[in-house]
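Structure ticket #2291
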Amino acid sequence: MSATSLTNLAVLTVSNPAQAARLLLAMRPGREVLWLGFSLAVVLSCVLQVGMAQLLPIPPDQPVPATEPVLLILARSAGAIMLSILAFLMFGRLLGGTGTFDEVFLLTVWLQYLQIAGLVLSLVSLLVMPLLIIVITLATAVLSLYVTLHFLNEAHKFGSLWKSFGVILLSALVAVPFVLALTPSGPV
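Resolution: structure written out below.
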């Protein structure tokens, strides 16, 4: 795929996520392409997380937080993405969906790239206009939910965004404790 077609697909994903999901699913890339895409998404996510940690200003009265090892960030990113994929697949099937591992894998990895683009925008805004990061982060979260609803609906052939919402809700109930447990500086 060319950069132009990737950009067009990203725009389509935001403007009509159901149609974008159908286009992505029709491509049927091989497993090696999916795993390569997954690995690249994990590495890019790690690079951006480290970049954000280095650029975020620390208030003068706060201690400097310890730097997390890159391998831990990579493992946490890979684990969180894979846990999402498995939870979306398992709970989707539990609610009557017919999606396959490869279909959910493909759509989730594509969504990761869009979230990475949102992180890049956040990083740029942090350098240019720091308060804009709040708006971009909120917009990315809302847009990710909107796209995920449609992606799950298409992957599992639900015909109902409410079932997709149920999958997201059940997945979050399972995934959040695991992700928090993997976060050394988190509340657990």
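Closing remark: The first helix runs from residue 3 to 15.
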